Amino acid sequence: MADSQQRCILVTGGAGFIGSHVVRHFVRKYPHYRIINVDQLTYAGNLENLADVQDAPNYCFVRGDVGDLETMRSLLREQKVDGIIHLAAESHVDRSICDPLLFARTNVMGTLNLLQAARECWSGQWEGRRFHHVSTDEVYGALEPGEAAFSETTPYSPHSPYSASKASSDHFVRAYHDTYGLPVVLTNCSNNYGPYQFPEKLIPLCIHNICEEKPLPIYGNGENVRDWLHVQDHAQAIDEVFHRGRDGESYNIGGGNEWRNIDIVRKLIRLVDEELGRPVGYSDRLITFVADRAGHDLRYAINAEKLRRELGWVPQRSFETGLRETVKWYMEHADWVRNVTSGAYERYYAEMYGDR
Ligand code: NAD
Ligand code: DAU
Question: Would 205 be classed as within a structural domain?
Fold first, then answer.
């Protein structure tokens, strides 16, 4: 797919963490594209994340729910959308354990609505059209230490309501390709970190708590392993796959950068304490082992060889630099953190961690 032609791309969930980086990337890099960001602005969506591009002539925001088929239909028709990058989702595993039905509604039905709207609106005229579904490595289940990393052919084995809902949405995307011929690509990415991540997730939560000298809740024994990738490397990979990925294919995206949770937390303590001029090890006392997450997957690791081989993508940011910059960003954006963590988030935090 040429990236020189004019296009209209609908990004769903563009006010969230990864979505805001994807919107910024496309708005800046492709001034000849129209980028429409549709987002319901749940607790996780925040237009402040896009303040620096909100006035760009090729960008517009529409508040809308992917659960509403009629709204998706009219958006696609009226705006003459020819590309969809679908990120809107409920994304937090812990919340999925508390409210699985919401995850089915947004992640499964929301995806199905968009697929159906695209199928109707594009009605067999597939040339120049593309539906890019942004998914997760969690659909593959959990790895044992030493087991080979997930590849695109690893069988699906989701354990949480979140990963089950994402797996289900992936299956629907493939079904629309195989049954109706809808032009689709899928990406399954590992854990992202970077600016604008909602502070319910491990890295921003710990940065915030170290600054505030609050306990750092580590689930279980802290031995669980995640494969971390900078969010801007993810946005670049989405760009490559959206434009040049093969129709109907899935691509894994990952950093080849596995860390045990306890080691990440120790790294964050070192970085934050250093920034604040505190003595070495000052915040070690904040480490608090708490009750484990139900169904907690032991290890994720991504084999992104297909993406490297076919499209030449490799991550550009080292973890050491990326994490240091991320720590600085959160410390310099205390207002952003305060805004997104006030009110409803305070209640969530008390409920999630109160009795743990
Ligand atoms: P996020 O929770 O930060 O943002 C989700 C966005 O979707 C928010 O802006 C929210 O308002 C919006 N949204 C939620 N429900 C909606 C609805 N019904 N209609 C319209 N908008 C709605 O999530 P994120 O971490 O940026 O993840 C984005 C996508 O990437 C998700 O699909 C997630 O499964 C996937 N993913 C995330 C990671 C990660 O590490 N965060 C890794 C791999 C894949
Ligand atoms: O792997 C990709 C996935 O990564 C995405 O699909 C999800 O949307 C995203 O939320 C993320 O899921 P995780 O559950 O891996 O991320 P989280 O930051 O919630 O947790 C990372 C690890 O840290 C996990 O093993 C659980 C642990 N943890 C998390 C929190 C919030 C703790 O030990 N304490 C905590 O307070």
Answer: no
Q: Which ligand is nearest to the CA of 166?
A: 1
Residue with CA closest to ligand 2 atom 25: 224
Is this structure's pTM higher than 0.90? yes
Residue 341 within a domain: no
Q: Ligand 2 test: best mutation among 201, 265, 351, most atoms within 8 Å of CB?
A: 201
Token digits for 15?
């006010």
CATH number for 105: 3.40.50.720
Ligand nearest to the CA of 188: 1
Mean pLDDT, rounded, for 249-268: 97
Q: What is the pLDDT of residues 72-91, one digit of tens each?
A: 999 999 999 999 999 999 99
Ligand 2 site, residue 300, Cβ cutoff 6 A: yes
224 occurs within a structural domain: no
User: Rounded to the nearest 5 degrees, what angle is found at the Cα of 22, between the Cα atoms of 54 and 165?
Assistant: 120
Inter-axis angle of helices 110-122 and 161-180, to 10 degrees?
20
- Dump pLDDT digits (tens) for 108-119: 999 999 999 999
Distance 275 CA to ligand 1 centre (A): 30
Query: In terms of residue numbers, what domain contains 68?
Result: 7-193+230-256+298-318+346-353
Beta strands 225-230 and 258-260 are antiparallel
Q: Is the CB of 169 under 6 A from ligand 1?
A: no
Catalytic residues: 137-138, 162
Number of separate domains in the chain: 1
